[in-house]
Amino acid sequence: MFFTPHITVACIVHAQGKLLVVEERIDGKLTWNQPAGHLEADESLIAAMKREICEETGLDLTPDYLVGVHQWTAKDGTPFIRFLFSCEIETCCSTTPQDSDIERCHWLTPMQIMESTQLRSPLVAESIKLWQSGSRHPLTLFHWFESPPQTPY
């Protein structure tokens, strides 16, 4: 059987003890997620993460670390491989989402997020737990083989 998971990226953005979440409407319900999205063709994982952060928050940020990789299957049977990054910034700055699917962004404590009933998927809380465990890996783990990505990282 041929396995074709959705490849996605997500980022824990941390400032002043709070994490940035995006609020988006999924099937008519408001949900919370980390800035996240799908990898596009001819795009490096890091470039995808930078693009998603900008589209969903309006912020120009580069991830600092790879926190981990989750393999997960959604309730509808859709398989995902999610690369989780982290980014540390000094202040909880204002956001201006560029993506019309994002209603607004919130700076919340990890506990506020993990106790919420609005999480888009269980990966939101699991990502915070992995980040809180101190998991950090250098971005030098990533190498683009053959043709270069359109957007360098």
Automatic annotation (TrEMBL):
The UniProt record lists the EC number as: 3.6.1.-
Keyword Membrane found = no
Q: Which UniProt keywords apply?
A: Hydrolase, Magnesium
Q: Which residues form the Nudix hydrolase domain?
A: 4-130
Recorded GO molecular functions are: hydrolase activity
Q: Which cofactor does it need?
A: Mg(2+)
Family from the record: Belongs to the Nudix hydrolase family. NudJ subfamily.
Q: How does it assemble?
A: Monomer.
Its recorded name reads Phosphatase NudJ
Q: Which organism is it from?
A: Rosenbergiella australiborealis
